[in-house]
From TrEMBL:
GO terms for molecular function: sepiapterin reductase (NADP+) activity. It is an enzyme of class 1 (oxidoreductase). It comes from Bagarius yarrelli (Goonch). Gene3D superfamilies: NAD(P)-binding Rossmann-like Domain. SUPFAM superfamilies: NAD(P)-binding Rossmann-fold domains. This is Sepiapterin reductase. It comes from the Eukaryota. NCBIfam families: sepiapter_red (TIGR01500).
Length: 272
């Protein structure tokens, strides 16, 4: 039975995200694409959705689908490689086209990521350029994009501002032969925890979406050097234990609508 306080909480829960600027990196496929689809249904007319990835065709295809489904939603695609120095500026210049007076909330989803070369162990990573390249895309770009967006939309403009880091269990636990990925995810988690301490009005969430049936999973279960890990990933797949993006995105959206998580927290799909 629902208690009085639960029903009060339920009535406070938002039904949508209002008129928002919503930026999603890695929106061309997998979790990011699904997130774009779900978010688009919860944005009021006049909202702006910025989709970022390298695959122009996939972004345009998504733009066409979403535009046909949602009247009054402005969709902008940024075709950029977040590992390159000019990519963050490309996203910021699209974001600059939206004035804070035209929206009442801001969402930035740092979702884009790559697994890195999981076919090798730590001792083989002697090439500084290779490591820097990985960290540039998976760590530096998320920090610099987040910082740039917060400068464009500072606290004093009175927006509800929310930054989500799509995280992983790998931010917390070491997985053999996944040194780049685990390092990047751990660094990103800490980055967003620091941000939450610094910006009191900002809502910051590290969300670990669980094992998803996406291209990243296929790559992981095919290329992982560590035999135990590779076998357990293959078993998760063959036993149907992977999650659909829809189910995991659904949980994230619920958390964001309820909006009562501790800012800077790491929430895992299986903890919710
Ligand atoms: N799949 C899982 O089991 C799992 C588990 C835990 C956490 N996660 C996390 O969930 C998020 C989404 O993963 P996913 O499984 O959906 O991965 P995915 O299917 O591989 O999709 C990754 C997305 O990131 C984009 N991307 C990759 N490199 C990029 C670059 N250099 N510049 C710009 N965009 C780039 C890709 O687009 P383009 O290729 O078009 O650039 C794509 O849209 C990631 O942060 C991942 O770490 C996934």
């Amino acid at each position: 039975m629902e208690t009085g306080s639960e029903s009060n909480l339920a009535s406070l829960e938002k039904k949508d995200f209002g008129k928002a600027l919503c930026i999603i990196t890695g929106a061309s496929k997998g979790f990011g694409r699904c997130l774009a689809q779900e978010m688009s249904t919860l944005l009021k007319p006049g909202s702006v959705l910025i989709l970022v990835a390298r695959s122009a065709d996939k972004l345009r295809e998504l733009e066409t689908i979403l535009s046909s489904q949602r009247d009054g939603l402005v969709i902008r695609c940024v075709v950029a490689d977040l590992g390159q120095n000019d990519a963050v500026e490309s996203v910021l210049s699209e974001a600059r086209k939206t004035s804070s007076s035209d929206i009442n909330s801001l969402f930035l989803f740092n979702n884009a990521a790559s697994l890195g070369d999981v076919s090798r162990h730590v001792r083989s990573f002697t090439d500084v350029n290779e490591v820097n390249e990985y960290l540039s895309m998976n760590v530096s770009s998320a920090l610099c994009l987040t910082a740039g967006i917060l400068q464009l939309f500072p606290a004093d403009v009175g927006l509800h501002r929310c930054v989500v880091n799509v995280s992983s269990l790998c931010a917390l636990q070491p997985f053999p032969s996944w040194v780049l990925y685990c390092t990047g995810k751990a660094a990103r988690n800490m980055m967003f925890r620091v941000l939450a301490k610094e910006e009191c009005d900002l809502r910051v969430l590290n969300y670990a979406p669980g094992p998803l049936e996406t291209d990243m999973q296929v790559y992981a279960r095919t290329n992982t050097a560590d035999e135990g890990l590779r076998t357990s990933m293959a078993a998760m797949h063959s036993e149907g234990r992977l999650l659909t993006c829809e189910v995991s995105v659904g949980k994230l959206i619920k958390v964001l609508l309820k909006d009562d998580y501790e800012s800077g927290a790491h929430l895992d799909f299986y903890d919710l």
